[in-house]
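Progress against Task 2.4 (sequence-to-structure conversion) is shown through the following example record, which the project officer requested during the mid-term review.
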Amino acid sequence: MSSNKKYRDSYYPVRTVTDLKDLINSSAELFSERTAYLKKNTPGGRYMPVTYRQLKEDIDAFGTALLDLGMKGKHIGVIGETRYEWVVGHLGTSCGTGVVVPLDKELPLSELTNLCSRADLSAVIYSGKVEKNILKAIENIDTMEYVISMDAEKSDEDRLSFSELLKKGRKLIAAGDRSFIDAGIDPDAMSILLFTSGTTGLAKGVMLSHKNIVSNVMNMSMYVKVFEGDISLSILPIHHTYEFTCDHMTLLFQGGTIALCEGLKYIVKNMEECHATILIGVPLVFEMMNKKVWKQAEKTGKAAKLRKGIALARKLDRFNIKAMRKLFKDVHNAFGGHMRMFISGAAAIDPEIMDNFNSMGINMFQGYGMTENSPIIAVNRDRYHDSSSVGPAMPHTEIRIDNPDEDGIGEIVTKNDSVMLGYYKNPEETAKVLKNGWLYTGDYGYLDERGFLFITGRKKNVIVTKNGKNIFPEEVEYYLGKSQYISEVVVEGAPQPDGELIVTAHIVPDYETIREQVGEMDESQLKKFFKKIIDDTNDQMSSYKRVKRFVIRDQEFEKTSTKKIKRFGTPFSSAGAESMEKKF
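Structure tokens generated for the chain above:
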């Protein structure tokens, strides 16, 4: 479904910023007393505002204290849950001190130890929730000079207190220290070292510059407008570029407010408390919300009415928000009563879910990117979008399809100011993806006549049959995933003795829905039940894409912190997984 075509060539005007420091400083000047952040000082407490002026002052104070410690040009890690101190620690490092290294708090100790060693850290800023793991991970790093706790009230011989460093920085500035405030920024130099999530093997260190990030923010802001009074509830891991660039930096650039979520189980509660109007998330979050809407409708006997309302809304002007809010009042109240925009990214989402939310008066669309591009490459406009596409190329961004097949499908490559500098200390891997200024994404897709980009799958995942046919597991997974009885699915090509690959689906059933709607099943009944679902799904696809074998799992797949299934490193096809799988 496409939205209003009259906005096809419409762009929002944006100001030019040269780097993140310029972004923060100019926003502090433009929006001085607006609320930049809503944070909670105690779990379950009230949201407290932090103005743009206060944010700038805190960044300046913390950066000044870091320089006083001798951290100029050093690599400083930051790790913990999404919180205000994390943001100040990041920007206090990257905007005049040294290179910030955002770390994933969900990493197991062995991986965290490996990344800390490879990152050449001289200091680390951490929250109390990860203290045990991070201190163990850095104990053998010779370059480590300081550890800074976000939660320690006072500094001692083992660690420095974040709050005390802030106070120290304020005193230094009051005494005339302008070392951080006046520190120059090289927009083209590495200022952020960010490790990929490692879904396809060993994590690589992506080197990003100020120019990379701010060009992404400016380009995205030409397509998506944040209004005064908009409040985004930050729910994704902040170490990831998707959350940091698209949510935090873009909202701060445009003068919006970021409310910090207390955790995934508090999303609905926090939405209501902060009066959130924007939610940037991953498909899993929106799929859960969609399921909740329909489960509640079924439970209250309003499902038929909801379907009729959606059908009616699709015939009317979907941008008449007032009418939609009234018609779908119960849905809007379930999301806090103020929500106006959902943005999905990081993985594919069912277009029907987006069409449903659009019809119910919540503007929903998706984009596409990767860490190596800071991250956004393509995104739908907020007033002109296609639910089945990830949108056209961002402004000032070139996209071409390399070596397309007869259907126009090939590898997506891009050239723009957000393309990374390269992989840290890894010229071999860098040379594989950066060629003559073009970033080779490793994703397959095609462009339609309007310039909209469609993703078909990952290059590494594609199943090539003996007769040369390409099967994208993501397409088969999409069709299987439409079943309400399937919670998760991964499709692979299982090798046979003759060299052929058999399309095999590994399924995590939605046992709760099955029990509620079908009843209890033994192993044999479950096998027949899913064989019927797969047979019906196969009828929707070309014969060579048919699923020939399936496996029922009792456990969810291992995922990254952005809720992507780890295809590589997940034992869904190894002998070690036998105990948790039933093969049919």
